[in-house]
Amino acid sequence: MFSNFKVRTGLLLVLSFMSILALGVTVLGWYSVKGGSADIKNLERVALHQLQDVRKAYVGVLRAVIRIDSSINAISAETARTEAQAATTLLADARKSFASYQGSPKLTENAKQAETALARDFAAYAASVENMGQAAAANDQAKYLQIKTQDATQASAALIRSLEAFETYANGRSDSFVTASEQRARMMDIVLVALAVLIVLSIVGSYMFLNRQLLRPLQRAGNLFDRIAAGDLTQRVEARSNNEIGQLFAALRRMQESLTRTVTAVRTGVDEINVGAREISAGNTDLSSRTEQQAASLEETAASMEELAGTVRQNADNARQANQLAASSMEVAQRGGSAVSEVVGTMQEISASSKKISEIVSVIDGIAFQTNILALNAAVEAARAGEQGKGFAVVAGEVRSLAQRSAQAAKEIKGLIEDSVSKVGAGSQQVERAGATMQEIVQSVKRVTDIMGEISAASQEQSTGIEQVNRAVTQMDEVTQQNAALVEEAAAAAGSLQEQAVKLAEAVAVFRLQGGGEVIDVRSRQIGASRQAPRVGVSNERPPEHKPAAVAAPAEPEQAPAQSTAQQPLKRPVALPSATAAPAAARPAAVRPATTGHSASAGAKPAAAPLTPRAGRSKPAAGAAASHAATPAASTERPAARREAPPAAEPTLRPSATRRNQSAEDDWESF
C-alpha cells in the first residue's frame, strides 16, 4: 500500500499530525490557565475585597461607639469635643468602606437578599450611632442612654445576624470556586495523560512508517554502495518503488551496469598493452653498436685537454703574481687609510673649536642684550633729575662691566679662530700626503692591469682549446644522441606500457563481475619469451631537439634496487639475436611513440644510465668489440631483469621526449 508513497508526502503528513497535536495541547493549556485565572479573580473579589470592606465598616462603627462613650464620660469639655470629632470621623470612614463594598460587583443573584438585609441593618445601626453622637454632643445623657440601650442595641443585633449570613454565603461561594478549580485541574490531568499517550503512539507510528519507507531502503542502499566500493559488482540492484528511494535504486543500478562495462573493457585492454610492451623491448640492444664511434672522439678530447692543462698552468703563475701585487696594493691602501684617519681627526678638532666659537658668540649676544636693557634703564634714570641721579650711576657701572666682558669674549674668539686656521693648514698638509699615497695605489693598479692582460691572452688560448674540445664532443654527441633517442623512446615506451598494464590489472583486480572474470597478472608474463621482436632501426639524421642534455643526464644508482639490477646487463654490451642482426640496417622500423614521462620509471633509467660515466669507460673500443663476441643467450637476461624490477623513480627526460610522451598519454586516455 505504501510502497509508492512519496517520502515528501509522508514527511508532510507526520509533521502535520505532530503540529495538530501540539496545537491541541496549546489550546487545552490556554483553556486551563484562563479558567484558573477566573477562579482566582472571583476568590480574590469575595475573600479579600467584599468581606474586608464589610468587616472594616463594622469595626469602624464599633470604634465610633467607643469614642462616643469616651466623650460622654469625659471630665473636661475639650476632651469631650475631641472624642466626638474622632467618633464622627470614624463613622464617616465606616460608611465609605461600606459604600466601597456596595460599589464592587455582586456575587450572584442568590446573594441579593442577604446583601439587601446587610445594607439595611448597617444603615440603621449607623443612624443609631449618629444619634448617640448628637445626644452626647448636646450632653443629653438621658437621650443618649435611651438610644444606646434600645435603638442601638437592636440595630447592632440585626447587623450582626445579617453580617453572619453574608459571611456564611461568601465563604460557601469561595469554597465553590476552589472546588470548581480542583475539578478543572483533575480534568486537565486526564486530558494531558491521554494526549501524552496519543503523542507517544504517534511517535512510534511515525518511526515505524519512516523506518519502513526511508531508513531501511537507505540502509540497503548504503550496503550496496559499500559492496560496490569494495569491488563487488555481482549484487543485484532492484527498484521496488516509484518514489524518491526507488529513483535512487534505479540510478544505482545504472551506475553498477556502467561500472561493469568499464571494468570489462579495461581487462580486455590490459592484454593488448602487454603485447605492445613485448614488441618494443628489443630496441634497447642497439646501444652497444655506437661505442666504437665514441672512442675516436674521446682520443681527440684527451689531446685537447693536455693543451688546456698547459694553458691553465700558465694562468696559475700569472694568478700568483697578481696575488702578490694585490698584497702590496693592500699595504698602500692601508697607509692611505691612516692618512685619511689623521685628516678626520683634524677635522673633528676644527669642529670642536667651531662649537666653542658658537658658544662664545651666544655669550656675546646675551651680553649685548643685557647692555641694551641697562642702557634703556640708564636713559630712564637720566630722565629723572635731582636726588634720583644715584640710580643712573649704578646703571652706568653695570654697562661698563658688561662692556669689559664683551671685550674679553672677543679676545677669546680671536684666539680660537687663529687656532682653527693653524689646524686647517695642518689638515691641508695631511691631505697632500694622502694624495701622494693614492698616486702609489694608482701605479700598483696599472701593474695589476698589465698582468690581467697576460691572463686574458692565456684565456684566449684556453678558449681555442675549448673549441677543439667542443668539436670533439660534438662528434661524440652526434652518435650519442641517436643512441639516447632510440634507448629513451624504446625503454620509456616498454617500461611505461608494462607498468601501466600492471597498474591496470591491479586496479581492476578488486572488481568481481557476474559470471566470474579473469584478472590479468602482467607481472607473471615473460616479455619476449613467446616471440622474438624485430630489431628497431634508427635514422642517422640527428633530431634538432636532441642536445647533449640527454647525454649529460646523471645516473642515480642509489634510487632503487631495480635500477642497479637492470644496469648490470649494460656493463657488457648485449649482442643482437642472429636472426635480426643482419637485416637490421636494411629495414629500419618506425619507432613507437613513447608513453607518458611519469610512467617511464623501470625501463628508462637502466637504458640511460650507461651514457653518463664517461671517465670510467676508458676503453670503449674494447667494449664494442666484446659486444660482437657475446652469445645470443645474453639477450634474454635484460628482459628478465626488467620484469622482476619494481616500479622505480621517474627518469629525467628531455623536452622533446616529454612532448612525445604527452601525446602518447593523450592516446592512452582516449583508449
UniProtKB/TrEMBL annotation:
GO terms for molecular function: transmembrane signaling receptor activity. Keywords: Cell inner membrane, Cell membrane, Chemotaxis, Membrane, Methylation, Receptor, Transmembrane, Transmembrane helix. Residues 549-638 have a biased composition (Low complexity). Residues 528-671 are annotated as: Disordered. Residues 269-498 form the Methyl-accepting transducer domain. The keyword Transmembrane applies. The chain crosses the membrane at residues 12-33, 190-210. GO terms for cellular component: plasma membrane. One of its GO terms (biological process) is chemotaxis. Coiled coil: none annotated. InterPro entries: 4HB_MCP_dom_sf (IPR035440), Chemotax_Me-accpt_rcpt (IPR004090), HAMP_dom (IPR003660), MCP_chemotaxis (IPR051310), MCPsignal_dom (IPR004089), Tar_rcpt_lig-bd (IPR003122). SUPFAM superfamilies: Aspartate receptor, ligand-binding domain, Methyl-accepting chemotaxis protein (MCP) signaling domain. It is a multi-pass membrane protein. Belongs to the methyl-accepting chemotaxis (MCP) protein family. PANTHER family: METHYL-ACCEPTING CHEMOTAXIS PROTEIN I-RELATED, PROTEIN ICFG. This is Methyl-accepting chemotaxis protein I (Serine chemoreceptor protein).
